[in-house]
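Human: For the file, kindly provide a plain-text protein record giving the amino acid sequence and the backbone structure tokens, at your earliest convenience.
Assistant:
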Amino acid sequence: GRCNVTHSCFEPEQLMQNYPRGHQSLRGAMTRFQPRDTVQWFQDHGVQLKTESDGRMFPVTNESQTIIDCLLNTAKRHRVKVQTSVVVRSVTYDAEVQEFSVLLKDGDDLKCDRLLLATGSHPSGYRIAKSLGHRLESPVPSLFTFQISDQQLRALAGVSVQDVHLSLKVGSKTLKQEGALLITHWGVSGPAILKLSAWGARDLHEAKYQSILRINWLPQEKPDQLRTYLSQLKQDWSRRQIATHNPVSLPMRLWQYFVVIAEIKPGKRWADLSKKELNKLLQILTQCQFAIVGKGVFKDEFVTCGGIKLKEVNFKTMESRVCPGLYLAGELLDVDGVTGGFNFQNAWTTGWLAGQTMGL
């Protein structure tokens, strides 16, 4: 991949709006190391980043290997020993001597007085943290796609719309989001859907990923004005067929799908459009409703909602309030952001703070 390193959102308060969970704890941390500092750090270490139209930032090489090489070379330069393919069986802490014992699968026993856990959402990290006294908010998926049973919609896989308004009904809650949407072979995806899934991650999990999604395909149009416009087409386009003459700024295949689900007969002309059919079209364009029957397949899930309870961590230092000398960073914490580089920024910020403190 290209590695979405961070996001060009440099205002802390605005930045916090992109974290469904953990924003209050992160607020102070981000004033000490935020996206601007991340950009500067990589620049100081020889990596230039670029900003795309949506604010996402990538290495100018468009190669994730650039970031990997930078981090590994920096570690090597500071004589940091990196061990890979090493399995940790257990971690214990001796309070009397204030020392950790890290037991490896091969029998080696590593000793240290300060230990950082930055294991992402891997179960081993949760297991070790719990063994050292921490409690967890149960991990559930975030940033996933929605499965929709409508075969006709799924037949439009690949069709995208740049600006839609979404409304998701989950139990007693209604969540809203706007942005780009992509139709897939199993339902819907795209930035707006992923953000919606992040904000509704726990509610959707509790609802077993069964919900109702409403889409306004033309949020820039007022319903009354849209009704007047479509009504006028009965005269302006009287001889033209409804299915083959798309009057709105949406892909043709999507328009033809709307005509089908509005039960407008093939070949029908605009002049013959009934009031009932007009109302149906208007409803589809502005309040299209779909039943969500599940979430995207596992490989699409790349962020976890949940993790170590934030009250158990000092966000000024990232040191555990439960186990002295233990530090925690990244997705292991109950912090997650929407798509766009915000989850990486959580990792950079909390990792930097932990490193600064541990190195003293």
